[in-house]
Write a structure and sequence with these properties.
The protein contains five helices and eight strands. The chain is an alpha+beta fold and about 170 residues long. The longest helix is centred in the middle third of the chain and has 16 residues, at about 95-110. The two termini are about 25 Å apart. The structure holds coenzyme A. The site of coenzyme A has 21 residues, from β5, α4 and α5.
Length: about 170
């Protein structure tokens, strides 16, 4: 199922055949330091579900059909009209695919799903993520102090949110 298409990318619901792609992306050294990987069991549960609560999506190039990233969306069934972008990884980095993906997801969240709020969190040393979220118009809403324990260290996460009235269609 295709959620939305842009100039170069399409976002489609992930299938069981995408599981290994997702698991491999999560553990690549350039990705794992910025995320908290989810287990194979958790992804399998999502991929086998009706996706009313959580959804894994694949980002693919329209021209080649090649998968270039994966994102997880959560809280799809909550009564407060909000969606969390829980995880996002672009494999083919620094060619604008992250920006196009977030722009498409926000168009889907606010334009198609008619949500009131989109939100995500980010490690405080993830300078690419922070640059991207702030330049897209996400507001920094706070810091969750020492909320994750990675390699023996408690780390902070910055919370970013955007409301429907703040979303600028480009
Ligand atoms: C974060 C991520 C999704 C971004 O995707 P991407 O395709 O690489 O991003 P883009 O090419 O669209 O944009 C990168 C932006 O960061 C900028 N950038 C690159 N290096 C940077 C740095 N060291 N510091 C700040 N900004 C930087 C680029 O100039 C570009 O900005 P611009 O669009 O204003 O020119 C991707 O890098 C990724 O998967 N990272 C690992 C996992 C991760 O961090 N996920 C997010 C967790 S919150």
């Amino acid at each position: 199922m295709i959620l939305i298409e842009g100039d170069r990318l399409r976002i489609r619901r992930a299938e069981m055949s995408d599981l290994n792609f997702i698991l491999d992306l999560q553990v690549k050294p350039e990705n794992v330091k910025f995320i908290v990987p989810f287990s194979k069991e958790f992804h399998t549960k999502i991929l086998n579900s009706d996706c009313t609560k959580n959804m894994d999506v694949i980002i693919e190039e329209i021209e080649s059909g090649v998968a270039v990233g994966y994102f997880m969306l959560s809280e799809l069934d909550n009564p407060h009209n909000k969606i969390e972008i829980t995880q996002g990884i672009i494999d083919k980095k620094n060619c604008g695919y992250g920006r196009e993906t977030f722009t498409l997801l926000l168009k889907w969240i606010f334009g198609v799903k008619k949500c009131h709020r989109a939100f995500l969190d980010c490690k405080e040393y993830n300078s690419v993520g922070i640059h991207l979220y702030e330049s897209l118009g996400f507001k920094r809403e706070g810091v969750m102090r020492e909320i994750i324990f990675t390699n023996g260290v408690y780390e902070n996460l910055i919370l970013y949110g955007m409301l429907d009235r703040e979303f600028q269609v480009n």
